[in-house]
Amino acid sequence: MLSLSHDFADAVPALATPWAAAPAPQARLLVLNEELATSLGLDPSFLRSPAGVQTLVGAAVPEGAVPVAQAYAGHQFGGFSPRLGDGRALLLGELRAPDGALRDLHLKGSGATPYARAGDGLAAVGPMLREYVMSEAMHALGIPTTRSLAVVATGREVQREVALAGAVLVRTASSHLRVGSVEYARGTGDIAVLRDVVDYAIARHHPEVSGDDVPALGLFRAVVAAQADLVAKWMLVGFIHGVMNTDNMTLSGETIDYGPCAFLDAYDPATAFSSIDTAGRYAYGNQPYIAEWNLARLAEAMLPLFDDDLERAVAMAQEALARFRPLFAAARSAGMRRKLGFADADADADADAETVGVADDEVEALAGELHEMLERARADYTSSFRALSDAARGDATTLSRALGGDAALGVWLERWRAHAPDPVVMDAANPIYIPRNHLVEEALAAASAGDLEPLGWLTTVLSTPFTERSGAERYAEPAGADFVAGFRTFCGT
């Protein structure tokens, strides 16, 4: 059996609306993440049973659970919405994993709540499986993320442009506290509610700052650092979130909400796949700037907890926010150093002295010139970086082909090889397999038609992104130019 607590509902009642999931008349398990279930101390055999499936869709409320829809606000495409919240989601409760960590168990697509804003609160099979695939691929890439425990077909139809089969996603997270949670609390006008949210975030994620002179400022600094590291990791693998509203930025530093996300194919910083991002606000190259902008909104919401004097509070917020850019630059630079085959600058004494000794400005120059060649050729981002390993071993044929025979490559290779890049370091930093957009669409189309085998193969390959698999060559191949040119993503709401 499954036992859950109700930590969030108890700690922040002003942001927790008790609610029940909509009926799922013919609940049927589509996919279960047994590895995740086991790591959470859950019994996969129970989750596969009829009683377990009813629990996964919220029909059978676990012992101790108080399911709630969470309230939050958000800046969406720059405009403020004071009341958003879980319109089609429920926090079933929290469970204590064997490692001692508290994890949310959360449903998506479980029916309309008081925050549904005239929506039906439902979700279709395709978008829920998409989040399953993408979030688990991100986890395998080493990027902090919410994770997907299961997708369950509900037996209900979901009316969009056409009638679609309904489904519920079951996901876990360190918490579902967002920048928008703090914005909502500030919007109540009740400082006690704001303090409840911030105190709970500190206790849940950063208890080490509870003894600071200004604990709220310590929390803000920690969120700045977590988001700088997270977005740097996104950039290094070519991930585009697609809808970086403040209600989609967690205080834990985990990636959340995989609606219109995608991965770069042809390298272009202006790439934006989302059908609703017509101005490219959340394009690949804009993501660090948007993260900083979102963090500024968080600081504004937290100002009363920094200092009673507004001028001093603003100065404290500005000083803390100013850490974002250097922290992001350092995280990206460290990651790019590894992608180019150089050991970390602070590597131990046993590492190759020459690769450790490559200066940061030289790494940045090499990275900048490589990205210029990638952009000129509209080269595939993932496979081009992976081809560096062969180039370091003496064969630059694949890389040269990817870059369209760019005349600048020869000089660049000579300069790069002079620093003795280590292909083993590159192999561990540059994935072979990512959830390529054409493969994800292919697997989701098959799954929506009842064939889950392509999805199973895809998730298996993506679970070990840095290790070459015999027979998996097509999973490493870029999409055709026609697919890339016309590809769009959708929120799935």
From TrEMBL:
GO terms for molecular function: AMPylase activity; ATP binding; magnesium ion binding; manganese ion binding. Keywords: ATP-binding, Magnesium, Manganese, Metal-binding, Nucleotide-binding, Nucleotidyltransferase, Transferase. It is an enzyme of class 2 (transferase). It holds the Pfam family SelO. It catalyses: L-seryl-[protein] + UTP = O-(5'-uridylyl)-L-seryl-[protein] + diphosphate; L-histidyl-[protein] + UTP = N(tele)-(5'-uridylyl)-L-histidyl-[protein] + diphosphate; L-tyrosyl-[protein] + ATP = O-(5'-adenylyl)-L-tyrosyl-[protein] + diphosphate; L-seryl-[protein] + ATP = 3-O-(5'-adenylyl)-L-seryl-[protein] + diphosphate. Its cofactor is Mg(2+); Mn(2+). Belongs to the SELO family. This is Protein nucleotidyltransferase YdiU.
